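<instruction>
Derive structure tokens from the sequence
<entry> Chain with its tokenised backbone below:
===
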Amino acid sequence: MIPVIRKILYATDLSPNSAYAFRYAMSSANKHDAKIIILHVFESTTPAVFTQMVYLDDEKRKKVFDDRISYTLDRIKKRLGTFSDKELQDYPKAEDRIESIQVCEGFPADMILSKANELECDAIVMGTHGKGIIANTFLGSVTKRVLRRTRKPLFIIPLPKGEIDLTVHDELVSIQNRID
């Protein structure tokens, strides 16, 4: 028997593939009458950033982290608004499918797997984008790590050739309009 999908974890890196992959998450949620949890993971601090953060006191470090989370949440909400305005007019209650937006710090693959279990998600949706000459040969490193370790259905959505994130397109048009 195929398991019922009641909750979908949509993991996004906010790359140009994110809106395209979100379409699949929303479509699956509509078909299965499921909720969506949006997850963005900040990669754990790199050595260069860590070196700079060492010189900040705890209060300033917390403020930097809180500002980073706030900025990312605003960015995700703005993208959701744009996506809803453009693509969800026929589904007036589609935004109700979004249960929560989670932003955290850690190693992305580990956090995706941990949150999928902690939040009792039944499936995971992720976008992937090829980089460089070997784009069609290998999956992204985070996607590959999640794929190897998950025991949940994982939907990997590749960005088709020539496709662009609708919010990136909107930002480019907005910039162009300001120049003109």
